[in-house]
């Protein structure tokens, strides 16, 4: 059995792709408004995913202050458009500041204010290369159903916080959010049309490719 990775190696790997001043400023804004964005390792994974897929259309649930959105935009094609959904309009205003500071053209980031389960059904079937989910944990399974409708064949859904602060792996923890994430993980693993991968970066990043 492989030895567990040390905390030092974990931190080294998570910070391997360095963040610039724009992302650091976005994290500062997140702290000010009480938002916890994806970590650097998870962000780098999103950028890599968007680059490998040459993503032109991406949906994000949970805009925050633009940290994950900027990672995604930097991996997407130069003509790619990010559609990002958040119930908090102030968070989206701060995210637009982040995108502007990074030199992202206005037309490349479409912000939609509203609850994800109200907004996602209005988006186009089979149109998107990536769907990134970082919203209400108890709604993750419902988000997944919408994501699978939105993705093109070969597209990828990515879901943050699936280790949920070490609670998911601890069978004694039975709160509503932890149980919802365990159900999601089981659903993805058992889905015949998905190829899953669980990355132990940040708070856990689940990815699954839609086969058809």
TrEMBL record:
Molecular function per GO: O-methyltransferase activity; S-adenosylmethionine-dependent methyltransferase activity
* This protein's UniProt keywords: Methyltransferase, S-adenosyl-L-methionine, Transferase
InterPro entries, per the entry: Cation-dep_OMT (IPR050362), SAM-dependent_MTases_sf (IPR029063), SAM_O-MeTrfase (IPR002935)
Pfam families hit by this protein:
Methyltransf_3
Gene Ontology annotations of biological process type: methylation
As recorded in UniProt, coiled-coil segments are none
Per the UniProt entry, the signal peptide is: none
**The name this protein goes by in its record:** Methyltransferase domain-containing protein
Taxonomic placement: Bacteria, Bacillati, Actinomycetota, Actinomycetes, Propionibacteriales
């Amino acid at each position: 059995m492989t030895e567990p990775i040390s905390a030092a190696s974990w931190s080294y790997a998570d910070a391997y792709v360095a963040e610039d001043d724009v992302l650091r400023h976005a994290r500062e804004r997140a702290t000010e408004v009480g938002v916890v964005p994806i970590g650097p390792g998870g962000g780098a994974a999103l950028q890599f995913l968007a680059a490998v897929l040459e993503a032109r259309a991406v949906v994000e649930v949970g805009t925050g202050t633009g940290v994950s959105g900027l990672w995604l935009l930097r991996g997407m094609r130069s003509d790619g458009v990010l559609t990002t959904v958040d119930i908090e309009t102030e968070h989206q205003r701060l995210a637009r500041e982040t995108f502007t500071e990074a030199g992202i053209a206005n037309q490349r980031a479409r912000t939609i204010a509203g609850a994800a389960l109200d907004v996602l059904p209005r988006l186009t079937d089979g149109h998107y290369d990536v769907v990134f989910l970082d919203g209400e944990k108890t709604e993750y399974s419902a988000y997944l159903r919408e994501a699978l409708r939105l993705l093109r064949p070969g597209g990828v859904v990515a879901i943050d916080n699936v280790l949920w602060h070490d609670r998911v792996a601890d069978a004694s923890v039975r709160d509503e959010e932890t149980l919802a994430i365990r159900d999601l993980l089981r659903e993805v693993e058992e889905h015949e049309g998905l190829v899953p991968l669980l990355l132990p970066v940040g708070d856990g990043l689940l990815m699954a490719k839609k086969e058809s």
